Fold this sequence. Notes:
By secondary structure, the chain is α/β, with parallel strands linked by helices. Helices cover 44% and strands 13% of the residues. It has helices at 24-29, 40-56, 71-82, 96-107, 125-135, 156-164, 213-228, 232-241, 250-256, 269-285, 287-307, 334-345, 372-388, 398-411, and strands at residues 13-14, 63-68, 88-93, 111-116, 139-143, 145-146, 151-152, 168-172, 191-193, 206-211, 323-327, 347-348, 360-364. The strands form four sheets. It has a seven-stranded mixed beta sheet, with helices on both faces. Helix 4 links the parallel strand 3 and strand 4 (111-116). The longest helix is centred in the C-terminal third of the chain and has 21 residues, at 287-307. The protein is globular. It starts with 12 loop residues before the first strand and ends with a helix. Residues 17-18, 70-72, 97, 143, 145, 147, 172, 174-175, 195, 204 line the site of pyridoxal-5'-phosphate. It comes from Fodinisporobacter ferrooxydans. InterPro entries: Aminotrans_V_dom (IPR000192), Aminotrans_V_PyrdxlP_BS (IPR020578), PyrdxlP-dep_Trfase (IPR015424), PyrdxlP-dep_Trfase_major (IPR015421), PyrdxlP-dep_Trfase_small (IPR015422), SP_NH2Trfase/AEP_transaminase (IPR024169). Belongs to the class-V pyridoxal-phosphate-dependent aminotransferase family. Its cofactor is pyridoxal 5'-phosphate.
Amino acid sequence: MKMYKDLNTSLRTIMTPGPVEAEPRVLRALSTPILGQFDPEFTNIMNETMEMLRKLFQTENHWAFPVDGTSRAGIEAVLCSIIEPGDRVLIPIYGRFGHLLTEIAERYGADVVNIETTWGQVFDPAEVILEIKKVKPKIVAMVHGETSTGCMQPLQEIGEACREMDVLFVVDAVASIGGTEVKVDEWKIDAAIGGTQKCLSVPSGMAPITFNSRVEAVLLQRKKIERGLTDPNTQQQTQNRTIRSNYFDLSQLMDYWSPARLNHHTEATSMLYALREGLRIVLEEGLEARIARHQLHEQALVQGIRAMGLDLYGDPSCKLPVVTCVSIPDGIDGESVRSMLLNDFHIEIASSFGPLKGKIWRIGTMGYSCRKKNILHVLGALEAALIRHGAKINAGQAVQAALDVYHNEEHE
Ligand SMILES: *Cc1c(COP(=O)(O)O)cnc(C)c1O
């Protein structure tokens, strides 16, 4: 009989845009004993998680809960619950995840209109607003932090325009939530999706979402039509309007996350413990302090990369603070450098997709991975690996430049 060894994973320094290192407290929470999902102790944990999610999303929305599944489960739940076949959806694309929004919306029968901008940049909000006026969509769906390009789209003006024109505004804040500002109410976002395995430092497997009463009205309307209409002439039409997924039907999930507790799926018990602990850590640290911490380490990383003589990819005026994209120097095999970082230093950084494949590395500064030890470790290791690969860089500068950032901060 074949024997399998005990799990014995390496302790990596994970500096990718997710999954990142989990908070040790979150890993401990994962080993908490199981409760039944209607046990009052458990439903209390569900309610507390909703409360904490509202704070994370900076919203007064009643609805804030995790969808079970990875972040794209949250995106799919929101889109499939509000899109009816033939609905026009405007999706501005500035990286890979705009294509994901498009792919999901199209599968649910949306009439998708895309506008695209060059990778490494974001949209001028005026351009998006002009397009909204032109195509008159029911929904605008956009990515806040594009992990594929390291860029961040300003959302407030677009949100305000959507509200004025009675368009639903859906935002993928998977990468940005918990690491940089995401103000759901102030920016007039109708539905937002967050991620766990990025700046929350909780394992992958849940997608926190929030939505307001404008979205709720659409869901309730669809449910009413689904249940109330019996006229055979309208049956075909009714069928068309039913939310096409059972698992991702937000109207059913609302009943599950309300005091009615109507049975839907079995809540992912251990993941909910993990998310609750991750949120507790975020709120203990404080959103403002947490965002400042992410910025400090991003600065140290950026100064270190620059001091080495490497170039950053992307327009600096719209840089996503939690992902830093570095141009791979000419003649250097990016994958070989990444392998050396992993094998010799136990550090993981990310490669890239599509048009950027082989051209940039992406270094995340997210959640628990975003700390001084890791920044200094990755800079020292990257410098050593580049020298080993024959790259012409300013040796000995990177870690010093990062230390300068930390020391200046301490003396302020
Ligand atoms: C990571 C990511 C996703 C997808 O998340 P999964 O957890 O892999 O489903 C979606 N959008 C953005 C912006 C992301 O960074």
